[in-house]
Amino acid sequence: MIGLTRAVRVFAYGAPVDLRKGFNGLSALVEQEMKHKLLDGDVYLFLGRKPRRAKVLYFDGTGLCVLAKRLERGRFARPWERSVGGVVSLTLSELALFLEGSDLIGRKSLAPPTFDQKELAVKISV
């Protein structure tokens, strides 16, 4: 299971990826292209050129996990423009809906924002 809290951040790589890549290839994309630290516990979503396949990469505290999904019918609806090529931030709920094949239309945040590490440290010390 991927994360149990809203504190888990999800990032989607905005450009199509060769999904033959495994742990090492996807890790290199995270660290070199996305400029993120893979071992921070964030979740990363990758889509292929044809959006019928997706991979999710994350570090669960003991090792790297790669989840792969291929839709038998239909295709994944990208929540970003095909030409963006950057990094798109998603919530864990949006990731779950995405992997179910749902179309994320008109994204609007309905929940309060999560605390970042600095805000959390202040709240705990008070």
Q: Could you walk me through the main structural features you see in this protein, from its secondary elements to its overall organization?
A:
With 126 residues, the chain is of the alpha+beta class. The chain has one domain (10-125). Helix content is 22%, strand content 21%. It has helices at 23-33, 92-99, 117-125; strands at residues 10-13, 43-47, 53-59, 64-70, 87-90. The protein has a 5-stranded mixed beta sheet. A hairpin with a 4-residue loop joins strand 3 (53-59) and strand 4 (64-70). The protein is globular. The N and C termini lie far apart (33 Å).
Mean pLDDT: 81
Instruction: Give the overall shape.
Output: globular
Beta-strand percentage range: 15-25%
Contiguous runs where pLDDT drops below 50 for at least 5 residues: none
Measured distance between first and last alpha carbons? 33 Å
Strand tally is: 5
Structural domain tally: 1
What is the strand arrangement across the widest sheet? Answer: 4-3-2-1-5
The succession of helices and strands, N to C, reads EHEEEEHH
Q: What oligomeric state do these chains adopt? A: single chain
